[in-house]
Amino acid sequence: MSGPEFSPRPHGIGRGAALTLLFGVVLATAAVTNCLPHEEHTSPRPLSARAAAATVDREDVARAAAEAAAEGKSGTKAAEEVVSRSGDRWGAVYDKQEYEEFRKALDGEYTGVGLGARRAGDGRVEVAKVQPGSPAARAGIRAGDRLLTIDGQKVDGRPVTEVVTLLRGSSGTGVTLGLERDGRRWAETVTRAVLTTETVTVERLPHGAVLIRVTSFTKGSGKRVRDAVREAPAGAGVLLDLRGNEGGLVSEAVTAASAFLDGGLVATYDVRGEQLALYAERGGDTDRPVVTLVDAGTMSAAEIVTGALKDRGRAVTVGTRTFGKGSVQMPSRLPDGSVAELTVGHYRTPSGHSVDNKGITPDLVTGEGAEKRAQTVLSGLGGTS
What we know:
By secondary structure, the chain is α+β, with helices and mostly antiparallel strands. Helix content is 25%, strand content 26%. The strands form 5 sheets. It has a 6-stranded mixed β-sheet, with helices on both faces. Strands 1, 13, 14, 17 and 18 form a 5-stranded antiparallel β-sheet that branches. A hairpin with a 5-residue loop joins strand 10 and strand 11. Among the domains are: 109-196, PDZ domain (Pdz3 Domain), CATH 2.30.42.10; 200-380, 2-enoyl-CoA Hydratase, Chain A, domain 1, CATH 3.90.226.
């Protein structure tokens, strides 16, 4: 499934599919390094071991951009070419508009109509989800409706990522959707708006346990996790679901981990050879039983939380091996206002485990029925009321 309609562009993907993934991940941010807000990306191209470790000098990128601009050419494109040749697996260049979308995404915002799209079993594109209170919801669009056209352009046969891109645009602009439901076809013009995403949901499970699902670490999500833990009934265990979590702000990940820790190390990382560390806040709940659910879609900042709770003996981890995104990017503003984000180092879990290209192997490896197994483990830890 794709959507809602915001997403960063991974290195190696053309500008025509620029906004292609749900929401990338942030590793080196202002909260950690006093630099610009940062995004990292999913769906990397297969690279050799040498290329995966390659980095590019930011001065070379800036020089290429400046020389291109002086010749009346695109500085952004020139910078992209330098990054592409470098083999920096996660390096990328974004124009001003794209980076502004990323900034909004970090605040839990995106501009669109409030629906996600997916490819149905018969190959058609259909509405996967409609955000409550969004323009799409007010227009009466429902999950399962077939999406035929966007502003007159047919969507069947297009990658879902391109469909998501067509749904995006400036706040206040209209987009006409061709829809079908139960054999009835109609057109609906919907006005795009700035919408917020709910990245943390809380649910009471049978027997009193609490499920906290975190889909990404946007601004404020760490506090919502901490509040959910504090508000959970006494003695109730917590099932922390990080499956499919592509990351987010490191500062928010540290706050989330702090909900279960009383200070101490969360992760270490290096920036151009300088060794740095992230520490939990004091006062977290260190007694409540915790099980963390992870899978191959658990990435970066979500892996920081996973590694901290696992290595510190604070949670039992259930699921499949995590993605393995452990490199640190730092952003640099280029002469034309675009932003280059380049790899400068890697992070490690409290025990010194390098996550990059390795991921984190759960204590209990299980794919099918992982949530049920996790609940069983939590019950065995005494996490029911």
